[in-house]
Amino acid sequence: MATLEANGDQRGSRLPGARALQWSVLALVVTTWFSAAVFGVYILMFYGGAGPRGTLADWNHTLPRLYEPATPIATVAMGAHFLTGAVLLILGPVQLLTGARPRYRAVHVWLGRLYVLAAGVAGVAGLGFIAFKGTVGGPIMSAGFALYGVLVTLAAAQTYRHALSRQFATHRAWAIRLFALAIGSWLYRMEYGFWIAFTDGLGSTQSFTGPFDHLMAFMFYLPNVAVAELLIRAKGENSVGMRAAAVGALSIGTALTLVGSYFFIKGYWGPAILASFYSGRRL
Asked: The pTM is what?
């Protein structure tokens, strides 16, 4: 099976546009890993560290009502969602890179089990929070985020199921979908940042009930899935046009990620990480 898979990859690399597609995928994965890993560290230190510091109310600085003493079960669910989400952001690109190299297969398998487990917990915990408390943006935001949780949980289960059955091509396709979904929380912040920078928050309200907020309840993950499907099909079909479209979409994504990451790390995530670090040292 592994030999057939490798031969298939070699044949695919000789198809027109395949080399450009490989490099565009690598560029986006590496760029995303750097940015998402910094964001993952931010989540671990800011949100994860709030419990030991006794500052859980700080969660409400980014989204109102994340922490309320009257809903402890929802708080536990959201804490699990944050921590496992950070694991997804840090390990996702590592999984994509090691899975393509036979010499790292053992690392890929063991980290993959952790990755799938984290994805399942993140999805179920997020759904639990919505079930116990709902979202600050009301029914539309709750529906969008609930669908996101269902898709993450489904993709995690399918990724694991096809790995167990040694259907590696299908496993890889579901792993790409899972990665595209897993970076949704990171993209949610990035996309809001771009929108505020260019439109001064047009259509967005503090209660997340504006038309842009309602759109974002779905758009922080559905376009990712569409790009993932384009990539999966571009890698499997002898279509120069489809590969060119995939390269274009991935290249735009890489450029936007670089620009957004620079401003978020410089103005927000970086200072928050440093503040959490020094605050923790004083405990």
From this structure: 0.81
